[in-house]
Amino acid sequence: MKHRTEEQERILNLAKWGECREILEELSERQLRSFPPAFTSRLLFEVVPLNTRPARELAMFVFEHGRWDWREPDDEGMLLHKVLIQNERVEMAAKAAARLRKRDAGNPDLAPVWAELLCYLLEKQQRSAAAAMLNKGVLKYVDEDDLDEVFRRILSYKDIELLDTVVRSTKVIPVELIPVPENLSDYQFTRELLNRHTKEIEIKDNEKILWELAILCEAEVMTERLLKKTKDYQYLPRLAEGSNTLFELLLHIRCRDILDEVKKEVLYGALRSDRWKERFELLAGKGWKKSSQNHKEAIRLTDDYLKILGTKKYAPGRRGHLDQINDRARLRFIRVYEQKKKL
Question: Burial code of 68-97, b = ≥16 C-beta within 10 A, e = fewer?
Fold first, then answer.
């Protein structure tokens, strides 16, 4: 850096000797702001690693009121964010991130710095500091690998508002990074993610993953989009036996030209649900029992359903016995329903 003043040299020497209390007692906010960023960075390099209370107070004072240069290296070539991370100075890193200038945030050369600092803050549960960085656009020039790592941290954090902030910058959520839910909290977060960011999630080449996630998490908005954008009728039976929200989507599908075999599977899916009688009748009323080959004919289910039950394996004990009783009730219902429709 340029030649330091006598005063700056004295302050730097005091810091090297660990006399941080003396610096604090004489250094004013106005004086600190007058220092060039390169000098302030050098001062921080001396103070941040020290494990004394006056050193921590001085460092926080500098981060609160000073100006430093993120590109200024120490004697070993290490940048400030690395020094903060290496010395586990979480509160200092959070304070520095909160005071990040937009000019620095938008500097392409500093993009790797922001990615590393952001991941560190997320790891240390510093949500406010991470949000402050994201709101200043630090992801604009971050490369793909670093961006994926940021997404992994955000998704593991399960904070939908923080994710919203990221998506405003990236305009896309990588499908392969969306984790498969393992508990109730995961399910709720992934459901909200899928429903809230349907337009930022690329469907092409990701249909299978998205269908599985949408059904698993009962994400009705994403499921509806998948129904419109894909022709994966193999998933329709799972909607028929799924939650009420997913089942209701079937009632809005134009089923006139869907193959009879698919319609059968959908009706069988409805029969596997807890509200099987109600769902079966609703689907029948919407045309799912009418043949696509001859719209005046009904699809016959009794014989095929009897064969399905004949090959079904039941669990031993009371649970298996109850399943058998319920299946017989479904079979009787179908037989009576189809006989009545003949009359």
Answer: bbbebebeeeebbbbbbbeeebbbbbbbbb
